Amino acid sequence: MTLMRDDEVSASATPVEAPVEVISRGRLVLRRFRRRRLALAGLVVIVLLYLLAFVAPVFTPWRYDDLDYAAFLSAPSPSHWFGTTKIGEDVFAQVMRGLQKSLTIGLLVGVISTSVSAVVGATAGYLGGFANRVLMWVTDLLLVLPAFLIIAIASPWFKGANWLVFVALLAAFNWMITARIVRGMTLSLREREFVLAAKFMGQPAWRIIATHILPNMASLLIVDATINVGVAVLTETSLSFFGFGVQPPDVSLGTLIAAGTGSATTYPWLFLAPAGFLVAFVLAVNLVGDGLRDAIDPSSGGGR
Hints:
By secondary structure, this protein is mainly alpha-helical. It is about 65% helix and about 0% strand. It is elongated and about 75 Å long.
């Protein structure tokens, strides 16, 4: 029998440590997000809606403003997939056109309003003093103004103008509450050790806000952005419903829902098609927002 020396026994008994995999924050967030099946389903729905809105009109012979004088209020058929209106317009082409406008307006308003609230709130909270007083005075002033009424009054003035003006109007009155929340969180974060260390190292205020303050409230901002997207789409739909949003001859989901409301029971395809796409988009955005929140902040309700 071969005897082993003590140093050989200790060496063979010592387990070999496996190399530790270093995962970046982005990959970790992506891995957590991929585990959220509802969030993935919502993301798929958003992508499919965008593809459908911009690609499907290529495969239909009808434009949203074309008239078929041989089909008035006809039910869905192979020639008109979603039926026609009372003057012969193709409902499918109109819904796709309205989906393009509503989705784009909603996403732009969500991103712009959340960005403005983050910049204003973080700047006021970190700088304090005169900047804080001025920014919060403007925020409080806009909070007490009736946003829906002001947008409704101002919208006809821009009739015929670029639809981006309407986006600016919606975003201008959709950031104030989040800005105050961001300011309160910034007042707490600016006293933390890593922020003080960056300040003592001579980093400028804008860099500290961008690299140390805002990333620590990313969960809030993402949830706020998804909520703002849904609110913007619903606000645009409401304004268009009352005739203050997208103006004819252009269409949006709001104008289509307004036109089909009176015929919801007699000619349901006029109402159900735009309303169904609106509900699907808002629900998908909220699912994606919940998934991103849990992926970025595992301590939130659904994260693990």
